[in-house]
Design goal:
The chain starts with a helix and ends in a 13-residue tail after the last helix. The protein is globular, with a radius of gyration of 21 Å. Helix 3 packs across helix 4. Helices cover 33% and strands 19% of the residues. Strands 5-8-9-4-3-11-12 form a seven-stranded mixed sheet, with helices on both faces. It has a three-stranded mixed sheet with strand order 1-2-14, with helices on one face. Strands 6-7 form a two-stranded antiparallel ribbon. By secondary structure, it is of the alpha/beta class. The longest helix is centred in the middle third of the chain and has 16 residues.
């Protein structure tokens, strides 16, 4: 943020005529806004590294394309882009093979072409950043299932395997066409993997067991839990927002209006 932009932003934040501040962006800037906002209402929609749990009772062939879509739409440059997939060990190998197969069928090209699935990232320095994160993960023991290379101003849709929770591509927000797939043994382990994050915006779980679905919904630390769909799913009327480093407050038509409304209670006594 340049000095001129910073000064103008600070003048808006501190101006008494501004009663409410809503911000979408990085956690670093969000925290600075909160520090300067004082008692003003603030809604912060910050980072995420959305996770998805896939239980062994789910028909893989029916969800693969949807999972690929969640990971790579808009080149992964979405706050709730699917970044981490935790797959039960009994179906892990099959899921990885199918996921990689569909990923490799995606077309990289001109954003204006109807045949294009993946296009340019927002800035060239983001290509450098994410490539360095992948190289770092590989040095730490991760394996590239597919992708992992620049293609002009785009980045190949990339699947990472053998990752650990401390790698940047897992614990930070990639905001790029990269997804990590990790096996788990028990549902509780998968829930702990998802919760082992400083973020908590949207998460998802695929399961045919309604009891497991509600158990996960209760235990998962996030603003939204999407059952039997990807965490990238969002409709405008949903209460959208996160916990932890993902911010606080809620967007969505009804909830945004509520966040921007001062509640005044009036009581009337009809007799003296």
């Amino acid at each position: 943020m340049g000095n001129g932009v910073r000064r103008r932003s600070e003048s808006l934040i501190s101006n008494d005529l501004v009663k409410k501040i809503t911000f979408t962006g990085s956690g670093k800037v969000g925290k600075l806004i909160k520090e300067k906002a004082g008692l003003k209402k603030v809604t912060l929609e910050l980072g995420s590294n959305s996770g998805l749990i896939i239980e062994p009772d789910v028909p893989i062939e029916k969800i693969i394309s949807r999972c690929v879509e969640g990971a790579f739409s808009y080149a992964g440059q979405v706050c709730i882009s699917l970044q981490r997939i935790y797959v039960h060990e009994s179906i892990y190998k099959e899921f990885c093979n199918r996921f990689i197969e569909v990923t490799e069928s995606l077309n990289i090209g001109d954003l204006l072409s109807e045949s294009t699935d993946i296009s340019a990232m927002i800035r060239e320095k983001e290509l450098d950043r994410i490539h360095s994160w992948i190289e770092e993960a590989v040095k730490m023991g991760a394996r590239i299932g597919t992708g992992g290379q620049r293609k002009e101003y785009a980045y190949q849709p990339t699947v990472m395997l053998d990752v650990t929770q401390d790698m940047n591509i897992v614990c930070q927000e990639t905001f790029a066409p990269i997804v990590s797939i990790v096996p788990y043994t028990e549902l509780e382990e998968a829930i702990n993997f998802v919760n082992d994050s400083s973020f908590g915006l949207n998460v998802g779980i695929y399961t045919a067991d309604i009891n497991n679905a509600f158990y996960a919904a209760k235990k998962l630390e996030s603003g939204g839990v999407i059952i039997n769909d990807i965490p990238t799913f969002r409709l405008d009327h949903m209460p959208y927002g996160g916990v932890k480093e993902s911010g606080y407050g809620r967007e969505g038509i009804k909830y945004a209006v509520q966040e921007m409304t001062e509640l005044k209670f009036v009581t009337i006594k009809t007799t003296f």
